[in-house]
Amino acid sequence: MFCSIASAAIYGIEARIIKCEADCTDGLPMFTMVGYLSSEVKEAKDRVRTAIRNSGFFMKPKHITVNLSPADVRKAGTAFDLPIAIAVMAASDIIPTDKFNKTLIVGELGLNGEIKAVSGVLPVVLAARREGFKTCIVPADNVMEGAVVEGIDCIGADDLASVAAYMIGASSCEMKPVKTDPNRIFLSGVSDEKVDFSEVAGQVMARRAVEIAVSGQHNIMMSGPPGAGKTMIARRIPTIMPKLTFDESMELSRIYSVAGKLDRDRYFMTSRPFRSPHHTATVSSIVGGGITPKPGEVSLAVSGVLFLDEMPEFNREVIEALRGPLEDRTVTVSRLNASYIYPARFMLAASMNPCPCGYYPDRNRCTCTDSMVRRYRARISQPILDRIDLYINVEKINFSELNNEQKNESSETIRKRVEQAVRIQEERYRGLDICFNSQLGAGQIRRFCRLGKDEKDLLEEAFERMGMSARGYHRILRVARTIADMEASEQIKCGHLAEALGYRENPGMEEWRS
């Protein structure tokens, strides 16, 4: 007898419908699986056979053939265990097939029949709704994640016996669709913000630079001695960013679902991410990939902040791999059998010491030679530096600033100013494929960043003196446009350009180039 069950596989952050076809016939007892399978999918036959037996069902010795269709698409992961088991049981006349028409099933099986959580349930349920399915059966640990999707019934299952009882229609079956209101979850979501900018003492220039960076979604580099507060400031950047929109939350939740970072307690992302990978991270962990491709840190930081603490300590290949994501806002991971596309719309915040010991140019404390300083700074190439819009030198804080009892501006106060600048940009770029000044292309810069004669003269002089590249020139205009927006100025003025130029000069750049 033949039976077909719908399931799904993850490709990038999207799901593709896969048919689990099972055929049971008389003949030499055998369990064969075909359909371009990875090793973990091939191993499913042993898990399925044992789970069926340990769930109390008896299977006659049959020749069983399972095909995962389409056969030219590679299948990976353990989410096919449950649909394969149900297809085999139906093909063996253990359970009826009348409920399979509009039902999609995913789940991993334990040998005792327990259904274990899998990654990617949210995009799977979204794909099921898009393809016209009415019901999704998923592991109980993932059911709240899937229930976020409206317009489709999402049912959680604890074990194989429960799913079989549901298919038979047993009155003792307790499996019911889980209902939830995604908008209510979004609005009532618990914020992860446990820090505030009011805790940052002094550092007026750094606070101003970070506010500009967030207002226009510009990348920022902070340089300064150890203990000056670079990491402290960076960790508070998400607290001054505008609140996530529902669409941003849904996209972010899909990425975290595919990465396996959602669970019973956190099944929907409601706050902006702050990702701070260690400097020993590999290229695949940062940009995505691996044997079974997964989103990297640049994707997990979408709509939030990717912070590279002590950026020169990262492997040079890792730093250079950021060129594409910073420019294109997407990552394409190419494999022999497929290409996977991940979003990479993040704000980069990086920090570095001025030298290996951290105290240059204070020669009373710095023990580094000039060649050591040059080698240390040369670990970050000029093309990467050109993709960073603002540079700020975070000076060592003095005692009076540290012990000042006057309350600093809170994150909420700064966020209100940021939101005002963001609204101006949203209105200006309405109907275009950009939202922030940092995304302006060369043609759009000519349209939205017009300069008067005095401003052109100032920028021409700076261009020659600083030896700017074309990319650096455009980034100066983008930052100046953001500063003007923060002051609600329609025109970019000399003061806006002068401040933007001040943030463009990387501390110690002259020594670096010499």
Description:
By secondary structure, the protein is an alpha/beta fold. The protein folds into three domains: 2-180, Ribosomal Protein S5, domain 2 (2-Layer Sandwich); 196-401, 3-Layer(aba) Sandwich (Rossmann fold); 435-514. 38% of the residues lie in helices and 16% in strands. The protein has 23 helices and 17 strands. The protein has helices at 39-42, 44-54, 81-91, 121-130, 143-147, 160-168, 182-187, 204-216, 230-235, 246-258, 283-287, 297-300, 316-320, 323-328, 370-377, 382-386, 399-402, 411-428, 442-448, 453-466, 470-486, 494-504, 509-513; strands spanning 2-11, 14-25, 30-34, 63-69, 103-105, 108-109, 115-116, 135-139, 153-157, 177-178, 220-223, 274-275, 305-308, 330-334, 339-343, 347-352, 390-393. The strands form five sheets. The protein has a five-stranded parallel sheet. A four-stranded mixed sheet has the order 1-2-4-3. The protein has a four-stranded mixed sheet with strand order 5-8-9-10, with helices on both faces. Mean pLDDT is 89; it is low at 507-514.
